[in-house]
Write a structure and sequence with these properties.
This protein is of the alpha+beta class. The chain has a single domain, classed as Double-stranded beta-helix, CATH 3.60.130. The chain contains six helices and 15 strands. β1 and β2 form a beta hairpin. The radius of gyration is 18 Å and the shape is globular.
């Protein structure tokens, strides 16, 4: 097995592990690496949908997205498609998946089906480092505080992206979670807010909440907390949704990424109640 670090903050490209192998022993290797590096990248993994599902089930129960339809043949798999003429793509803002749920996603397994020759990379940011480097003043202000996460604006999931099909549900969902959560497996503290879904910090004045959140959001996006993965066909990314933020870049411009389709198969694993 060969491990190549992708950046100084997080992320590792792994060679020598076959994702077709759904054994418990193989999964334990992957999970140990995931807890260490937070985002893992595997190339030349020509796995089937069944094999992707089998791997995901080791991490826990599989989720179905509350707004977007899964594949007809494999409803656990959400096919993410950017049409050739589209300049945007799903997940284009820094976020943690479905943090508005009572038990937000634990792990994501994303498999590339078709990728443009350039553009559409995915970036990740390490929220353990983000918490560790937060100013003492902000740490004191958010200590033991909870924040509201809301899916307000859910119509965007089905209206903004041409090839994504909604399931008819446009209800808003919201839940409160600790601003600083503890990772249930590593015990590390994590800065658990994101600019897409976190709306306000409870028990603070509205203006103070907004000021603190905006400061945190800028802090979370520091480039020295991040890594960037350039997709190739038959690549698989597995990341810990609890301790990272991620975003899909929209650098699709004429003569470069624009005019090419981008197709991904996503499986999400249900997490726990953040503490």
């Amino acid at each position: 097995m060969e491990i190549k670090l992708v950046s100084g903050a997080l992320g590792a490209e792994v060679k020598g592990i076959d994702l077709k192998d759904s054994s418990l022993e193989n999964w334990k290797k992957i999970n140990n690496l995931l807890l260490e590096h937070k985002a893992l990248f595997f190339r030349d993994q020509d796995i089937t949908s069944e094999e992707q599902i089998n791997l995901a089930k080791h991490f826990g129960p599989l989720e179905r997205h509350i707004y977007v339809k899964g594949r007809k043949d494999y409803p656990e798999i959400l096919r993410i498609i950017k049409a050739p003429e589209e300049k945007r793509q799903w997940g284009e803002t820094w976020h943690t998946d479905v943090s508005y749920n009572p038990k937000p996603t634990k792990v994501i397994i994303l498999r590339s089906i078709k990728v443009p020759p350039v553009g559409g990379d995915t970036m990740f940011s390490n929220m353990e480092i983000a918490y560790d480097t937060l100013s003492d003043e902000i740490k004191d202000k958010v200590k033991d505080k909870r924040a509201i996460h809301s899916s307000l604006g859910a119509a965007a999931f089905v209206e903004a992206y041409k090839e994504m099909e909604g399931n008819g549900n446009l209800d808003e969902y919201s839940n409160s979670h600790p601003v600083v959560r503890t990772h249930p497996e590593t015990g590390k503290k994590i800065l658990y807010v994101n600019s897409m879904y976190t709306k306000r910090i409870l028990d603070l004045d509205e203006n103070e909440s907004l000021d603190i959140l905006n400061e945190i959001f800028l802090h979370q996006e520091r480039l020295d907390f991040t890594c960037r993965f350039k997709w190739t066909e038959n690549a698989v990314a597995i990341w810990d949704n609890r301790s990272t933020l991620h975003q899909g870049l929209t650098d699709f411009f004429p003569g470069r990424g624009l005019g090419h389709e981008r197709v991904m198969d996503r499986i999400a694993v249900e997490g726990d109640h953040p503490n």
